[in-house]
Give the backbone structure.
Amino acid sequence: MPNALPRNATTPLSPPGAPSSATTHSSAAAGAVRLRTAMSNLQRRLRSPGRDGGPSIAKLSALGQLHRAGALPAAELARREGVKPQTLTRLLAELEAEGWLARTPHPVDGRQSLLKLTRNGSAFLGREMRRRETALTAAIAAELSEPERALLRDACALIDRLADAMTSTASSENLS
């Protein structure tokens, strides 16, 4: 039988010449692996401490959460960070001792306190963000042509779309 398919082949459902769903999935999977790898590499570089050693990634992450969300109870900060509240206890004490974090009474629940950035914490976080953005800006300016920079901006919009899609998917899965 000259037209027989190999043993483990499937009959394509797409028109001739169109990519099969297996090809599309394979392409998406390859893109996912490449994107995850590239983003991990870039994040590692951006999160590396400055010459002075800088704060830990955990400290920066907690400060960043409070910067974006405003004052939060410790349990909510832990949830957003994906850790148990007990895990944050020492970290929060260190941030408070450094003057970057303050506790205020919770307006409704007297058993809790709200964590918020202090003026010093906001200033510190701003300096850290600018230092990292400056390093990234220098790399982009040195390594990418203007058309590549435009392509990078377009890719950022696509990455934002993927993040939104993943958030929507996760939210709908949590509702099920």
